[in-house]
Amino acid sequence: MNAEDRIERARTLYEQAVYGGDAGVLTDAERDLDAVEADAALARGRILHARFLDERARSGTAPAENPAELPLFERASELYQTLADTRGQAEALFWIGCLHQIVRRDDATAVPYLERSRDLAAQVGDRSTQAEALRHLGISAHMAGRLEEARERLEESTRLRREVGALSGVAANMVGLAYVASAQDRHADALATLDEAHAIAQAHGAHAIVLQIEQARSDT
């Protein structure tokens, strides 16, 4: 059921309560609206995060955190938990972890959220969110110097992204894999990985990833 359907059903249930005298249906109406609110909060938080990434890419430095972003993700998580929506909760927890890792540079706080997100996503077969969590757990391992663990996490994330057809995300992961390969002195592997990533990114219009690939080439 999409947001429009949920809102329309809440309207119908309101009329049923007011005119039919059945106030018991209002609980169902509230649950529908909680689901709409959770989805909207998550979507709005993602937009704020995308603005952060865009500003960082343009300026070369991290912009100030938008104070509305974390409360949106936390509200979504709270609502999904109340609704027993495991898939939604996994996604909201991922974004909370992502914010702590990317925006706040607080990896210690981020990792438990990312691990919980990964576990919940695997539980319900949500490969997209599982891949996102694995990617950022790979980033965490890379930052900590655990290169083989980083490689494994990123490779698993890449496999899942291929399965769901998220090929721009595959190219993004391959940039990370190239940095790991370079850090392991596998420079030929790094360059080959970047060549493949470039072909994928170009084919799917992932222009931001193309720029990352060019930067990675100069760094390796």
Q: What is the N-to-C order of secondary-structure elements (H for helix, E for strand)?
A: HHHHHHHHHH
Q: If you compute it from the alpha carbons, what radius of gyration comes out, rounded to the nearest whole angstrom?
A: 20 Å
Structural class estimated from helices and strands: mainly alpha
Poorly predicted runs of 5 or more residues: none
Summarize the main sheet: none
Estimate what percentage of residues fall within beta strands.
under 5%
Distance between the termini: 48 Å
Number of strands: 0
Which whole number gives the mean pLDDT? 95
Protein described:
The chain has 220 residues and is mainly α. Among the domains are: 65 residues; 55 residues. The longest helix has 34 residues. The mean pLDDT is 95. It has 10 helices and no strands. It starts with a helix and ends with a helix.
Tell me the layout of helices and strands.
Elements: H1 3-20, H2 26-59, H3 69-82, H4 86-103, H5 107-124, H6 127-143, H7 147-164, H8 167-183, H9 187-203, H10 207-219
Which key phrases capture this entry?
220 residues, 10 helices, 84% helix, mainly alpha
Compose a concise summary of this entry.
The protein is mainly alpha-helical and 220 residues long.
